[in-house]
Design brief:
- This protein has 17 helices and 7 strands.
- By secondary structure, it is mostly helical.
- The chain has one domain (about 10-200, about 205-280, about 290-540, about 550-585): Orthogonal Bundle (Vanadium-containing Chloroperoxidase, domain 2).
- The strands form 3 sheets. Strands 1-6-7 form a 3-stranded mixed β-sheet. Strands 2-3 form a two-stranded antiparallel sheet.
Length: about 600
């Protein structure tokens, strides 16, 4: 489950089951905490590097957009160095210009080139963790200071290929170097400004920044704050963080990042989400907020009205069972985790072991997967920024502010009746909702892009994996949930992606439309990345610097103007500063 959390991490760490169980009769068992398995000597150089990179990402706690780009760049660096030792494949930046002779195409040379490329890309992407990567190189018997540009050596190939890649990516619109905004690395340079404030909602269909009950506002400033309190990885406690902070939108400029395969961030922009009408503030005839028996929507049905989609969220909340709770936590991937791009990297590692991949297999598979995650982040965040759509928690707390609704009422309290203004999603109270807008779902987009990428690479949809969640191991309802072991089983990559997508509805973070449209975008991203990757593998790819379209100008630019909205009842004019439950947790 979501053990990248803060509380009790040390206690649970010593009670984990074996980190990589032997394949059972009905499939491959993966860790129920979603962490990567321990490294085996038989793992490829790619898998060994992933283990260290994901460990670094969990310490740094960067958001999913930046994590996706980290993984894409590191995977691409490994591929570009490896391609010089293949008879057909071409690199993403230098094409086939680094091609080595047949006599040089040995496993030892490939491994060394891949390791040096991964090292150079990793210290560029995750510089604060450079010591980890130096130690890993030394463990492999490689000198991390032996940087060469001699193409007759594997380290020279790695340097030439990776330098070309990094020069290209340093100015791809992500603002990695902070040269587009003096406020810092990866900061917004497009002038995004939220329409609403925490205490004053001007536009009920637009994102509302929440007060966070942990003093860090979600992903923002988390590393700096943890250093302040001298917290160590896996020894961090929620209560130590204390206080409140207002969320700031994470990477609103991300639609500007240069993609791997899609033409631009807005190429796959989905249709608009549901908008509010005056009627949505009134209960519909026959509306049942006790059993929600009037809602007959299936998983793939779009709610017809703004109010109906909010009530559907409450219906999920009121009917949560242990399996849905387990799925919600397993796929959560919040702060101090590797986020969905890292989670799917972990799952792909099990596929590599299951199928006894060679180094060549892993280099290619993770090029596809890594870039599918990056392009998914770009397409998804472009839609998030363009529509700037409100999160369910803000809708419920305003639309049902003084109404009684049936829902999950808090940790270990089950389902009951609560005022809408006090409702919380099924999430840890220190991280109720991520600090960016709703539409579309990142989990849906990432997961369907990953499933499509893996299905395309493997030539089939077979996954055959499962995780067993032990009784009482929930982080939201510690010691109480689940009451009995719960098995999350995924026969196919698509079924795993579906559960990841649905988990965000169960958790109260996404509406159905945000989920379903995200699935469509993710699937298309996976298809486009696979098509581009095949061209690279078979040597037919054209390597050219095409013009990079900036969806958002480098000047102050507000998000899409709000539509004209009906007047709201006075009771719905503001979002409560914090629920009593959240305040209690934060004040521990």
């Amino acid at each position: 489950m979501n053990l990248k959390s803060l509380t009790l991490a040390t206690a649970l760490a010593v009670s984990f089951a074996p980190v990589f169980a032997q394949p059972a009769q009905d499939g491959v068992q993966v860790r129920w905490d979603s962490y990567a398995p321990d490294i085996l000597e038989t793992d490829s150089m790619v898998i060994k590097w992933h283990h260290e990179v994901l460990s670094a990402i969990r310490v740094i706690a960067s958001p999913p957009t930046i994590n996706a780009r980290h993984m894409a760049i590191i995977n691409t660096a490994m591929y570009d160095a490896w391609a010089a030792y293949d008879d057909k494949a071409v690199g993403t930046r230098l094409g086939g210009t680094l091609r080595r002779s047949k006599a040089e195409r040995t496993l030892a040379n490939k491994q060394k080139a891949v390791a040096y490329a991964a090292y150079l890309a990793s210290i560029d992407q995750l510089p604060t963790q450079a010591y980890q990567f130096r130690n890993l190189m030394k463990h492999f018997g490689y000198d991390p200071d032996r940087i060469s540009r001699d193409p007759a050596t594997p380290e020279g190939i790695a340097t030439l290929a990776t330098e070309a890649l990094l020069a290209y990516r340093h100015h791809d619109g992500a603002n990695q170097l902070g040269d587009l905004n003096p406020k810092g690395l990866y900061t917004d340079y497009t002038g995004y400004k939220a329409f609403n404030t925490t205490d004053k909602i001007e536009s009920p269909t637009h994102w509302v920044p929440l007060r966070s009950g942990n003093g860090i506002g979600g992903f923002n400033d988390i590393d700096e704050r943890l250093k302040e309190i001298k917290a160590k990885p896996r020894h961090r406690v929620t209560a130590e963080l204390g206080g409140y902070n207002i969320q700031r939108y994470v990477t609103p400029h991300w639609g500007n990042v240069r993609p791997f395969s899609i033409a631009s961030g807005d190429q796959l922009r989905p249709r608009p989400p549901l908008q509010i009408t005056e009627q949505d503030y009134k209960a519909a005839p026959g509306e049942d907020n006790e059993k929600y028996s009037d809602l007959t929507l299936g998983e793939e049905d779009f709610p017809r009205t703004f109010r109906e989609q909010a009530r559907q969220i409450l219906k999920y909340s009121a009917s949560l069972d242990d399996k849905q709770k387990a799925a919600t936590e397993y796929w959560a991937d919040g702060p101090l985790g590797e986020s969905p791009p890292g989670h799917w990297t972990v799952l792909a590692q099990y596929v590599s072991r299951r199928d006894k991949h060679s180094l060549d297999d892993d280099v290619k598979m993770f090029l596809v997967l890594g870039n599918a995650m990056m392009d998914a982040s770009i397409a998804c965040w472009e839609a998030k920024r363009h529509y700037d759509y409100v999160r369910p928690v803000s809708v419920v707390r305003t639309m049902f502010a003084k109404e009684k609704v049936t829902a999950w009422v808090g940790p270990n309290r089950g389902t009951g009746v609560v005022e809408g203004a006090a409702w919380n999603p099924y999430q840890e109270l220190f991280f109720v909702t991520p600090p960016f807008s709703e539409y579309t779902s990142g989990h849906s987009t990432f997961s369907y892009a990953a499933a499509t990428a893996l299905r395309s690479f493997k030539g089939n949809d077979r996954f055959g994996a499962y995780a067993v969640v032990k009784p009482g191991t929930s982080f939201i309802e510690a010691g109480m949930t689940p009451k009995a072991p719960v098995t999350l089983k995924w026969d196919t990559f698509t079924s795993a992606a579906r559960e990841a997508a649905m988990s965000r509805r169960y958790g109260g973070l996404h509406f159905a439309q945000g989920d379903l449209e995200g699935r469509k975008v993710g699937t298309k991203v996976g298809e486009l990345v696979w098509a581009r990757s095949q061209e690279l593998f078979n040597g037919t790819a054209k390597i050219a610097d095409t013009p990079h379209k900036l969806v958002y100008a480098k000047l102050p630019l507000a998000p899409t103007p709000p539509m004209k909205l009906p007047p709201r009842p006075a009771a719905a004019a503001a979002t409560p500063a914090a629920t009593p439950a959240a305040a209690k947790v934060a004040g521990k």
